Amino acid sequence: MNRFLIALIFLFVVSLDLHSQSVSKRIDIEKVFAGHRFSQDGHKLSADEMVMLMRENKEAYAIMRAAKSTSTIASILGGAGGFLIGYPVGSHIAGGEPNWAMAGIGAGLFVVSIPISIKFNRLSKNAVDLYNAGLYEAKLRQGKTEFLLGSTTNGHGVALNF
Fold it and tell me: What is the pTM of this model?
C-alpha cells in the first residue's frame, strides 16, 4: 500500500503543469520631453530596476547595461557642468566676483552630456523593445508541455513533451 501511495503522489506531482519561472510583465514606454519614461504596472522604473528585470533576456540585458553606463557618464558630466555653471552664477547673485571661465567649462560639460543622454534613451528603448519581444516569444512557448501515460506494444510508458 505504501509503494502504491508514493507512486500515486509521484504521478500526481509530475503530471501537474508547473512552470519554474513566471512570465514577466511588459515594460511600457512613454515619450516625454527629454526622452522616454519606462514603467511596469504603473510603477516608474529606474535604470537599475530595468537592468535587474532584464537579466533573463541576455541581449536586452547587455544593451541595458551599456545604456546604464552611458546614463552614469551623462549624469556625472551634467551634474559637474551644472555645478560649474551654478557656482559663478550664485557668486554673481550674492554680489561677489564670478569666475565666468568656470561657467564656460560647466556649459561645455553640460553640452557634452546631451548627446550621451540621447544615446542612453536610444539604447534603453532598444533594450525594452527586445525585452518585450522576448516576453511575447516566451508566452508563445508557455503551455506547450505535455505529459503522457500510456501503453505501447513494448509495454507501459511515460512521455514528457515540451
Answer: 0.66
